């Protein structure tokens, strides 16, 4: 098996392995708990949240829905969105490529947990205007990245899985230039699977 991978492979991989991904993700310890608690502590009750790269809706969307937030989920994998629709029929679930997202509405909060880092460097940079277009004044933005500029190839179900990251300095610059201020940031968070985690707020 070649270890070559590129970001264009991601959509197909998550379609082919939707059942395995859903099973594995639901079985994971909820390592996001600390950051999700921090995120929701800053939200008003019933706030609208756009989950970009929502997968099968578990555990992130499930956590938010159970706490009364109005979640809209977006993912490029039809099989994963189908699972969301079955589990949470009262919410809106959309099949869409995040790189071309244009919902023509804004939200009180945005989350891109373990999704942004599957994009190329160029497409990650292009996501920040998309975040801005979907953010209401004062909206929160929570997302994960790597810690250093580069590309890393992982493996899932015997297939290479693309990841990329910009530098922390560039993420800070992109946030600032699109009107977001950093509320909290952790590099290689040991309590969160080694992720770099960013929590930002759109300036009012």
TrEMBL record:
Entries under Pfam families matching the protein: Methyltransf_25
Keyword Transferase: yes
Record InterPro entries: Methyltransf_25, SAM-dependent_MTases_sf
Protein name (record): Class I SAM-dependent methyltransferase
Boundaries of every Methyltransferase domain copy: 49-132
Keywords carried by this UniProt record: Methyltransferase, S-adenosyl-L-methionine, Transferase
GO-annotated biological processes: methylation
Molecular function terms, GO-annotated: methyltransferase activity
